[in-house]
Each structure stands twice: as structure tokens, then as C-alpha cells.
Amino acid sequence: MCGIFGYIASKDQRPDPGIIRAATDSLFARGPDSSGYAQNGRVAFGARRLAIIDLESGNQPIESQCGKVVAMQNGEVYNYQELRSELLRLGFPLRTTGDTEVLTYGYMAWGIDGLLERLDGMYAFAVHDRANNLVHIARDRMGEKPLFYHADGRHLVFSSQLLTVARYPGVPFRLNPSGVEAYLSLHFVPGDETILEGIHKLPPGHVLTYRLSDERLTVRRYWHLQPQPVRSGVDREALREELRSRVQAAVSSRLVSDVPVGAFLSGGIDSSIVVACMAGKVADLKTFSVGFETPELDESPYARAVAAKFGTDHHHLTFGLNDFEHLLPDVVSSVDEPIGDQAMLPALWMARLARQHVTVVLSGEGADEIFGGYGYYRPRMLPPDWRRTAYDALRPFAKLPEENFRLLAPGAVETPSGYPLLMAGSGLAAVLRRTGVFEKTPWADRFASDLGEFRDPLQAACFTDLTTWLPDNLLVKFDKMAMGVSLEGRCPYLQPSLVEWALGLPQDLKIGSRHVKELLREAFADALPDTILRRPKQGFILPLSQWFRHTGRSMMMDYLGVAIDDGVLRSDRLRRTVEGWLDQPEPPGRNLMALLLYRMWLVHAYQQPKFRPKPAESGEGSRYSLAVA
């Protein structure tokens, strides 16, 4: 697990070694154990490493023995041992026992497409093919690891962090109107755009290729989630057994590590199953949970019950109203890109607790999206009598109006999955200087086209969240809060083969008459306490309305009063809107928290200076010196 940074200079320039070092060091929290650099002509790579696999010889970047290929990554390749064995059989001279070198020689053996086809992991990696003057940057299928880039036709800057790209000299810092509009609608920015103009996310399942000979940049999709045939007529017991086997295999594959591994344990069904699969495979298994002072929000008794069932070494914290003030600034500095998710506060606190005991944690992210865990999915299910007909022959999605497939359709108050919007319609238009920008993006058009391929409404709803809410909010929260304290987080439910298989389950095995995620509960019924199996879903829900009625109000108004004109919002109307919310008997906490985090992020981001050269000898644990080959 690492943070990566790369720069490709224009033809008449060479990277400044001191600035490369400064930019790489800004990723220290993502990789406190060592730093490494590799430069060849116009291309410079820098990596900060959090040592997880091959502690002694796995420092990055890793160059081939012939010097023709160099690679670095943020993340883990879980099937690296299998790939390493194959490369050794082919005669490649591997010198380490880790996973990054597999990328270096795997590229030489199979090319970029063959390498990507073979990988099972979470990653954002870069390869410099010096022989062919190419740089490839790829991101994992589900979007577990982040990758941002800026290209202006002359040079390319990329990194694991948005603000690292924004702080590079020559990269403009301007708010992106369509990104802000999307944020106010969703409390995150979906797709390939970011909150900053000219800086993009490489979408999940995509590879960027930069050809140095003519400065040509291409971004293409190498994998995407497609409609899955529904498994009709399959024995329910057989499906239960296969589901259990697939989840157990996914968890086992995510345990590869040379450092201690633990688990986040909320007490919900998803994390409890992960812990059940880890028990017996991880010695002295440590679990971590956070509870709340408000009893109706507190899940900690359930987490303790699961911990007792499996005999884990359980650690717990209680979150109170007084914890908002001291955690919010740390959340904002760790998140790097703005998302308005209230659950970042307990997530950061739990990550800090876990980092005192382990370096890797497994979590339950993704289960709701693949097994139908959200209550707003239920209206997307077909009535029982319709399921006995050929739905696509009666009313195929492809013949519905195009607006049905837009993520942010005009007049809508929710996305196609049923996910409720933060602001919409006239309320959103009132605070924007201009509107209707976001949906003109190529990414939004492709999303609509992909969604139109789905015939099963529940699959379509799950697909919507798996390609927006999950990678652009949930996984950002998990990655940024964990990496903010140098902790690696892994998501077993997001093994791509498990995701595809689960998507094809019949609707009534996901959302049954009694529970959501019904087949998942049945598959592990003998492993978990009945109190866990019978529980309805409950997320990290903070007492936001209560907080904003008291100290949160002054904090909100203080940050609204900071003299920053983002060029996108009408500050006077925004202030009146916020004051109206705050005056309600039950202030809308989700709206207020998203706006507070946005304003706090703006203040933080505007305070970040551009990088300046640092002395070459200052990098702790530096493996490579920067020298033009």
C-alpha cells in the first residue's frame, strides 16, 4: 500500500528532482515506511510506501533488470504469488517476493492488456515502458484505490491525491462548476470529473496511456460491469452453498499480508460475516468498532456479541457530541477531495484505534450494493406477476425515455437507484450561478448508455450505486480515512467475480419478504447469532440535527463567513438557505454537514502552497536517487 506520484515533462523540459521529491513527500501518510524515485528523461516516478508484503525488498518503484520497464503501485495484487510463479516459469529474473515486481515483469510478459486481465486486486499503478516511450496508468475494476491526473497537451501530472496534483507548479487551481453542482446534488462528485477544473479521476476499470513521441493521451475502459443473466430455476440450497463458498474465498484471498490484519466490526450482517470468515484463519484476530452516546444509534452491543462469538480481541470507542469539533478538521485534511459523508468522522476515529494494533483491516463495503441491502431498492423490484413474464419483451429499458437513465435527471429528487439527492430543483438552482452543467459530460452520457442495457430493474439500481455511490463516496471515505493514519483497508465483497455472480441472483433472494440480503443471511445462518441475523440495516448515523441545533450552528456560520468566492455559488442565497435549515425544529443534518465539509475543504485547499524543491538527501528510506538516464 502506497501513495504514488508521476510527472511527464514537455519535450523541451526535464522534471525538477526537488519538486518531484516534495510532491512525493506530500503522500507521507499513505506510505510512511520509505520513499523511492525513478527518473528517465522526461518521466519521473515517486512512491511513498506502507510496507505490507515483502517488507525487506519490496520498495518502489521497481525497475526490470534490463532497465526497459519500471513500475509502481498504490494497493495490493492479491493473486501475486500465482502470477509470480508463472513469471518465474517463463524465465523472468524476479528479485523480490512481493507484488509490485509482478507488475514490472508481468507487463513485459503479457503487455498492458494481458497484465490487467490477470490481476485480482485493488490498485492504481503506473508503468513506464522506456523501450517504446509509453506510460500506462491503470485503476482497479471497482475503484478501491484513487488516481487523479492533469494533462494540458504538453505535460502530465498524476497522483493518489487530488491536492498533490493541484499543488504541482503550473496546474491551475479553479473550482469546477459542474463538479460543485454534482456535489451539492449528491454530496460527492461522480465519474471522471473532480471538484477542480482540469483535474480528472481515472475511472475504475480504465487505463490511461501517454505516448511520449507525439504527446498523445488516451483513456480507455478495459473492464466494466455488465448486465448478468438472472439465475432462474436454480436450487436455493445450492445457491446458498455457492454464495457461502464464494464469500469465504474472497475473504481468504484478502488476508495475504506480512503484517497484522484485523477487521472493522459494526455489528451489522456484512462485517459480521467477514469476521466469521476470518476466525480460525487469523491468529489473535483483532476487531474494532465505534458506538454512539445516543442509544438508538448505537450498534456496539451487536459488535460485542459477534466479537464474543468468535473470541476476537475487541476494541471499542464511543462517539459523543463533543467529538465533532476536534475530528472535523482532521477529517477534512485527510479526505483530500470533498465528500459530504457524515460517517467519515467515526471512520477516522475507528481507523486511528485500529492503527494502534494492526496495519491492515477488512471491512464490509460493497455488500449492500451487490446483495440489495438498501431499503430504497425495494420499489425497483418487479411485482411478482411481472417476474413470470418476459419483462424485456413487455417494457425494455432501452425503449424508455433517455432521461430515465440520467444520473441527475431534470426534476428528479433521487438517482435511478433511488438514492436521495441532497439538493435538487429550484432549491439547487437558487444557490448556483449557472445550472445544468454536469449532465453534459461524456461520462454522464456513457453512464446513461450503460444503464440502458439493463433489463432487470434491481440490477440497474445496483449498477447505478456500484458505479457512482460506491467508488466516489464509500470507497473514498474508507481509503482516505484509513490511509490518513497509514492503515490499509480491504473490501472482500468487491472481488469482481463475486460482484458479477451476486448481480445475477434473483430479486427475491436479495430482497425477501422479511429481510434485505436474504440469501446472504441464509448462507451464514449457522455461523452468526440470531440477534445479528434478524437485525435490520443500520449505518453510521450521527446525531447531526442535535449537534447543529447547538455548537454546529456557530461552526457552520463561521465557515460560511470566510471570505472565499468559489465562483460557482451565490453566497448570499446560500447563506439564507442555510439559515432557513438551521431554524427548523429538526435541521436537515445531511445537507448541513455536506455544506460544512465543502466550506471547510475550500479553506483547507486554498491554504495549500505550490510545491517547492526539497534537498535530494531529505527523503527518509529513499531507494533510488533522481538521475537522468
Main pleated-sheet profile: 6 strands, antiparallel
CATH architectural grouping of the largest domain: 4-Layer Sandwich
Q: Cα distance, first to last residue?
A: 27 Å
Shape: globular
- Total helices: the number is 25
- Work out the radius of gyration: 24 Å
Which sequence of strands runs across the widest sheet? 2-3-1-9-8-10
What is the C-level CATH assignment of the largest domain? Alpha Beta
Helix content: 25-40%
What is the quaternary state of this protein?
A: single chain
Total domains: 4
User: Stretches where pLDDT falls below 50 for ≥5 residues?
Assistant: 384-399, 618-629
What is the CATH H-level superfamily of the largest domain? Aminohydrolase, N-terminal nucleophile (Ntn) domain
Strand content: 5-15%
Q: Which structural class do the helices and strands define? A: alpha+beta
CATH topology of the largest domain: Glutamine Phosphoribosylpyrophosphate, subunit 1, domain 1
Instruction: Give the number of DSSP strands.
Output: 17
| Mean pLDDT rating | 91
